[in-house]
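Dear support,

We are seeing what looks like truncated structure output for some complexes. This example has two components. We would appreciate it if you could run it in full and send us the complete token output so we can diff it against ours.
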Amino acid sequence: MSYFFQIVVSGIVVGSIYALAALGLVLVYKSSRVANFAHGQIIAAGAFITFFLTVRLGVPIFFSFLASMLITFFLAMSVERIFLRRLIGEPIISVIMVTIGLASIFDGLIYLTPFGSENFSFPTFLPTESIVVGGVSISWTQLVGVIITFVLIGCFSWFFKKSTVGISMRAVSDDQFGAMSVGISVPRVFALAWATAGLSAAAAGCIIGNITGLNFETLHAFGIVVFPVVILGGLDSILGAVVAGIIMGLIQQFASGYLDGNFGLNGTGDVMPYIILLIILLFKPHGLFGIHEIERV
Amino acid sequence: MSQNRWLATGNFFTSYKQEQRTFFTHLDRTIFTCFLVILFGWPLVFEISNKYMLVLDNILIAIVAVMGLNLLLGFAGLISIGHAAFVGIGAYSVASVCQVIGENHVIVTHFWPVLIVCAGIMGAIFGAFVGLPALRLKHLYLAIATLSFQMIFEWFIQFMSFFNQGQTIYVGRVHWFTGQVGRSDHYLFWYYIILTLVVVLGFGVRNLLKTKYGRCLVAVRDNDRAADAMGMNPGLTKVYAFALAGFFAGVAGALHAYLYRGVGFESFTLHASVGYLAMAIVGGLGTLNGIFWGPVAIKFLDIQVEQFSEFVGQYLTSAPNVATALKPLSFGLVIVLFLMYEPRGIANWWRIVKSYTKLWPFRY
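Here is the complete output from our reference environment:
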């Protein structure tokens, strides 16, 4: 039984990271209808910036965490300014392909740095022994990671519900022309959505880096695996991203906990989200909390 | 049609039938014939090493695959991020035949055209299956569906012992009327076979667009609700487009398997899918000649970048992964720059040059 609860705990840990990573994707999609395939690369960039600041420059980890969030904030904003702003009104294929191209460019740039191909790990700043409750163990990094994730998600949802900027972002996502007519600057909101996405990506990158170690391949793989999560939750719902993230984390951990090695299967955890996704697309195409848009010619 | 059957400097059509022609003027037809004669004839005149022949074969196979992707992306407006998986389906259906009956069985070596067509049909079946969500969905959701198919495909190949867990599965040497195709003319032989296929399939695509189904695809791309109102079935048209793209991809995969005399997992990854997408976009979406420009341009870029990074690597010995860095960087830059500054691709340049030469010395 403790095996079961162990899987539940690790599922929630993985799932909350998915939720945080998915948040950035949802933010960008909600405001500007762009699916950002370069999100994983921004996550990786955030993690490596933190690593660079803490280890190479000796900045305390808390400040480098904040600094990397600030840097990716401006990085994502400039990506929007340079590449995506020209494409407003272009067909969706071009927009998606530009983000795929951007992912490739980021890949190249990160391979040029020394962080491209090796494994790194953050210096430990938390107790290394794990907490054991009734046979279920959770390490301090995981616990702190989950807590930070939920705090951040809470901050984001407060930001969208209460603050003026957040409300204007929601307005743009509902109706761009309507928002424009009441005096909201739509390009500014787009830039802000990208910037907040970059911010959450950096946070996700740091938390993942602390838990699993820094490796470019695993970090940017998050950018792809986040898509099933987002689709499950509905592409434009923040609550959906959180719920779907945790569901996906649980499914993944259960799959690798119970299926692997039993029926001659291996690595089912990696493929399970995609299988779930295909099934969901057939039966509930717009996800759990997604809005089914009414289209007119 | 103008009085002059050799040159036409405007649109003189008087009937629908004239617009349906494959070649509008005699000049077009002559140039095309000369082009074909050159393509088929040059290996008889020039000797070329197997290394470069392999590059040419690769480009031709990519052209076959991109034909399918361009139908899907340019004509039906559906994004597929899993095209390499469909190519892989074709290649692995040949490989699984080899696994079951042995790599040097008569069916593999003598009846390879049948196997290639069967691989195409396998691709079409899987394409239709993956396209099933298209009955209810569009745009991004479909793109993600193909993405997940790509991931599931990769997992299957990597973990099934039947597929050798992604290790190479060998395919035997094929036979021709002259006997077994030997090592020295293997690549030349496949150059001719693939070139013939490219020509045949190219005409196929060209004529498909004149049929009811081809026009259905374009109508659904432009506005699926309007197409629905006009009596087409957008969902089925999309599934059909996926099946068609799967067919082309399957054929390309089977050709890949025969050309390399083996099937390995690395050629059909997500990265390859993005490569096919880039080829389709750089060539020009929704154009016929873009199908040919794209693969040529991207493969050429690949080779140039490889040579450049070798050149750089001589001077910068301390940075060993210049090649791994420059490849995705240049590749991504090409995609992004094309989409930002020339979204209609190289085919647009071709169109400009063509209309200029046609109207010369008049500007308009």
